[in-house]
Amino acid sequence: MLSLVLAQPGFSWGPSHLNAHYLPYSVGCLWAKCLDNQTIVENVELLDMVAVREDIQHFVDKYDKIDVIGFSCYVWNYNYVNALAKAIKCKFPECVVVFGGPEPEHSDQDIFVNKPWLDCVVVQEGEVSFESILESLITNKSLETIPGLVINKQGQRIVTPTAERITDLECLPSPYIKGVFDHLFSKHPDITWTAIIETNRGCPYKCTYCDWGSLTLSKIKKFLLDKIEQEIKWMSDKKIDFVNIADANYGIFKERDLAITRLFGKYRAATGWPKAVTTNWTKNAKQHVLDIAQEFKDQGIANSVTVSLQSLHDDVLDAVERKNFELNNIEDMSKSCFERQLPVAVDLILGLPMETSTSWKQTYYKLFDLDIHQDFYTHQAMLLENAHMNQNQLEQYGMEKFTRPIKFTEDNMQNTEYATFVKSTNTMTYDDMIDCAMHTNWIYALHHTGLSSEQSKFLHKHKGIPYSTFYNGLIECLLQHNFMHNCYQESVEQIKMAYSDIEEPTLEQIDLSLSGEFNILEWNIINKSIESDIQNCIKEFIYNQFDIDKDLVDQLDVYSRLSYLTYENHTKFDQLSHNFDYNFYEVNNLNAKMTKGKHTYAFKKKLSQTFENTVDYANYMIVRKRNIPSKNIITLQD
């Protein structure tokens, strides 16, 4: 009888009091497939299924024998996985160590020189390959007959023929329906489990920065709707709070994905679970995607739709083999989202090849021109191990890179997880990169939070003042004041630290890397309680820079202050009304002409919590940035 361990160790995520962890879906799929194989059932004993990081020595000491251990490897667990695999191989030299997932460097000629504890890597989909590995070990057959493997043969790297893609997904049983994860609920009663569900597999896009298309190939295959419904029911019955739909392009199938969305609503209505659902929306979202997002919103389990633009610069999109839809379609989608009161978020990536400092900064202003102001989520370009960009484009585009921590456990620093990011390209120097990161910080701190967005929108819509003119002038004005200049310089130094190679991180460096480098300025502004100083400066800037009636500027200042929630006033009101002589809301949100007359607006805060200090308040604002809790809700009153 072979003793087997399957491991997909992860970190907790979300608020610490939840102690939330993902169920080990990938290795669960492997074992669910094996359970349909009678030879494996009779000859393999599953000792453990690992979902949580624990002390490595304690883990190894638990077992008297491990014959096979299979790891699902990702950028967020790869250092820990290798440390654990090495320790297991040391105690059990005959144990067969198998890696799978997107992270193993299977194309590296020296992979087994660098990782002698590793016996085999499964390339691409794993269910059939891993089943074949166990069958071969049971019958003492060579692994070299199995397609889709990279094998360690006494230090020599042996590559078997490419495995055929799994075309019939009906052959893949569900780990949920099979009860594969049921024991984890009693094993870890203190954990809030998060579930992953696939409704399809594959991605038709070949974006070079992503390893999804290379891992699953291009044509999309669908799982049966009956299986999907049974899985959703299982999650609902198990009271799973959070579900992630792991499709590459949810919403790509109009009727089908709307039907699946309604299944979530059906079971949530029956049990109250799941509480929230997240997904990766289809890249070129059409109007029907909003119908699906609206359905989620009506169910109370999701409240936004994300448009993955990454860049608006054609040269960049060509370089990464991606094509966005037309800008007028983005504008139409934004308008539809506003009418539905459905928040729209935009994903952008800083550091892609062919991006320049000018094109990057203009991206935000182009989006503002399209009336997209609600949310931006900016990522630093990451070099994923098996992505085409990392494998083939570094030299072509003069890409320099750096490595920094992305995950951390304070009691186990030796297993800190790292990722590699783009530091510069042949069109964006390191200094340009820092400048662009700081510009993004300004956009987040001023516009995204609502600190200056109402003023900039009104001036643009009423007076035709370009957003670039407003923000370039405002930033220059702010930096003339000591309170802002010092905050800015501190943020620049922190950005530079976050864009540096960090081999032995300190706690300060770890905290910085994990906090998100594009929100450092916002965090410093809130923590230093200088929002009011900034608001005063914005008012003076508008007075001095633009030919606008003083009374209009004074009332715009009041309107803007009531729209933005500071730490100082976050406990002082829940909702209040105010009269104005100008129709600010209609101009900013409905593209109306400015008119004078009595206009009454209600300002209601989104925030329900209270905080004892600015540090906790700032941390909350950063973590919850997609909900933009600093922006109060504005409504018209008769």
Give structural notes.
The structure is a single chain. The N and C termini lie far apart (77 Å). The mean pLDDT is 91. The strands form six sheets. The chain has a seven-stranded mixed beta sheet with strand order 3-1-4-5-6-7-8, with helices on both faces. It is built from 25 helices and 21 strands. By secondary structure, the chain is α/β, with parallel strands linked by helices. Helices cover 42% and strands 20% of the residues. Helix 5 (111-114) links the parallel strand 5 (96-100) and strand 6. The chain is globular, with a radius of gyration of 26 Å.
Which labels suit this protein?
single chain; 638 residues; alpha/beta; four-stranded parallel β-sheet; globular; seven-stranded mixed β-sheet
Task: Draw up the topology in text.
Layout: E1 2-10, E2 20-22, H1 25-34, H2 38-43, E3 44-52, H3 56-61, E4 68-72, H4 78-91, E5 96-100, H5 111-114, E6 120-122, H6 127-138, E7 149-153, E8 156-159, H7 182-187, E9 192-197, E10 200-201, H8 212-216, E11 221-222, H9 225-237, E12 242-250, H10 254-271, E13 276-281, H11 287-299, E14 305-310, H12 314-319, H13 327-340, E15 344-350, H14 357-369, E16 375-380, H15 388-393, E17 400-407, E18 417-424, H16 430-448, H17 453-463, H18 467-478, H19 482-498, H20 507-515, H21 520-527, H22 531-545, H23 550-563, E19 575-582, H24 584-590, E20 596-604, H25 614-623, E21 633-637
Parallel strand pairs: 1-3, 1-4, 2-9, 4-5, 5-6, 9-12, 12-13, 14-15, 15-16
Antiparallel strand pairs: 6-7, 7-8, 10-11, 17-18, 19-20, 20-21
